Amino acid sequence: MGSTCVAGICNFVTNGDFETGDFTGWTLPSCLTFVESGAAQHGNYYVAGGCTSSPGASVQQTISLNVGQMYTLSAWYWGDNSAAGTTFYVGGVALFSSADTSSSWVHLSATFTATSASEVLRFTLFNVPSFSRVDNIVVY
User: Fold this and answer.
1) What CATH number corresponds to the domain at position 121?
2) Which one, of 122, 97, 96, 124, lies nearest residue 32 by Cα?
3) What span, in angstroms and rounded, lies between the C-alpha atoms of 92 and 67?
4) Residue 4 belongs to some domain of the structure
5) What range does the domain containing 92 cover?
6) pLDDT in tens, 58-84
7) Which portions of the chain are predicted below pLDDT 70?
8) Looking at the domain assignment, is residue 5 inside a domain?
9) Residues in Cβ contact with 66 at an 8 Å cutoff, skipping those fewer than 6 apart
10) Rounded-to-integer distance, Cα 41 and Cα 108, Å
């Protein structure tokens, strides 16, 4: 997997906006999770899903980075009830979590330093009885 650069800014995530309409570039989720069209934060598609038990649906991909370089992970999340949540990890380290239930898109962001040339980017979704949503995942 490589980075996609626009106007000098490179995104190291493949299909982070899910505009392929599927999980291209990502591993298949561990439970009920799907790519949905409609009220996306960016474009036409987003991931919706969630398991009824912890730790939730897990979706991941391996990204190539430069060891020792600092990066920013940015993503958008929408949880629609008090039992909703998401957590984002890079290299097994949780960078941020959200249990926001505002019923609208919320921006999440954190910086990290790459400790390996190949890092696993993973996010989980948990939501009972509905679905959590994630869109527009960028590492730059």
Assistant:
1) 2.60.120.260
2) 124
3) 16
4) no
5) 10-139
6) 899 999 999 999 999 999 998 876 667
7) 1-3, 5-8, 29-30, 52-55, 81-83, 100-101, 128-130
8) no
9) 114, 117
10) 13
pLDDT of residue 10: 84
DSSP secondary structure, 57-99, as one string? EEEEEEEE--TT-EEEEEEEEE--STT-EEEEEETTEEEEEE-
**How many Cα atoms occupy the beta-carbon half-sphere of 94 within 13 Å?**
7
Query: Tokens 């009824």 sit at which residue?
Result: 52
Residue 19, token pair as written in the block: 């505009």
Amino acid at 58: S
Chain Cα centroid distance, residue 52: 19
- Using alpha carbons, select from 73, 64, 59 the residue that is nearest to residue 18: 59
| Res 131: pLDDT | 76
Q: Is the pTM of this model over 0.70?
A: yes
How many other C-beta atoms lie within 10 A of the C-beta of residue 76?
22
